[in-house]
Design goal:
With 246 residues, this protein is mainly alpha-helical. Helix content is 67%, strand content 0%. The protein contains 9 helices and no strands.
Length: 246
């Protein structure tokens, strides 16, 4: 998969260095050494570092997904392929947004927006028309990605005619594990993503009982890096399909 990766991927990988730097800021002295006061301070600092790293890691990953989706739209807008190459779910999403605007208005404003809908957006459904880059919006697509839960990823990628995204991620993640020499471990991607987002949310909403260990955060980092590589490859394939002029 390494030959076809989005530009957003190396930026994400580079951002992981910030998480690793934060983790390295925790006390190196083994917990349990020193006086009671020192032990308490070290424990609190370790927990604070790990909690912060957890939030930062998931934030960087979710930022990567949004950047990758934006890159997809930018590539389509630059290539301006015929609309038949664009996933219908993506076309419907943009049309739906305008229809919703119409039903939120009355009188002359509704008439104006209805006319604009048909004049500007009807060509999206003419298979031989070149895509209008002023119509497609990365913001419309990235707004659908609200968090990294598996059902959200599945919903967003289904708009791009990518089916079973979780299954594809699972295959890639477990192959990466095997390539690193771990043939015994199998990861259920949907469960792992739900676990990561849930723990991040608890920390972000002030649950002080949520205390991931450094080992756990480092494991999450490797996992999300593998997931990001898979998503990058899949989106690059989508770009290739969409931007073909055939």
């Amino acid at each position: 998969m390494a030959d076809n990766l989005l530009g957003a991927l190396p930026e994400f990988i580079d951002s992981l260095g910030e998480v690793e730097t934060l983790l390295a800021a925790a006390p190196s002295q083994p917990l349990g050494e020193g006086g009671i006061s020192v032990q308490s301070q070290n424990r609190d600092l370790v927990n604070a570092v790990n909690r912060s790293a957890m939030v930062m890691l998931v934030s960087h990953f979710e930022g990567f997904v949004k950047s990758a989706l934006t890159e997809l739209i930018d590539e389509i807008c630059e290539a301006q392929p015929p609309t038949r190459r664009i996933p219908e779910g993506l076309l419907e999403l943009h049309t739906r947004e305008r229809i919703q605007e119409i039903f939120g208005t009355t009188g002359p404003e509704r008439i104006h927006k209805t006319r604009r809908l048909f004049s500007a957006y009807a060509p999206l459904w003419d298979s031989d028309r070149t895509i209008n880059p002023r119509i497609l919006s990365a913001r419309v697509l990235t707004r659908q990605f609200t968090n990294a839960r598996p059902e959200v990823l599945d919903s967003v990628f289904s708009l791009l005619d990518v089916q079973d995204i979780v299954t594809q991620m699972e295959s890639h993640v477990n192959q990466a594990l095997s390539d690193r020499g771990d043939d015994a471990t199998r990861i259920k991607v949907s469960v792992k993503l739900e676990e990561i987002v849930s723990r991040r949310n608890k920390i972000a909403h002030g649950d002080r009982s949520e205390k991931p260990t450094r080992f756990e955060v480092e494991g999450y980092l490797i996992f999300l890096k593998d997931v990001a590589e898979c998503l990058s490859f899949i989106l690059q394939q989508t770009i290739s399909r969409c931007c073909s002029l055939r």
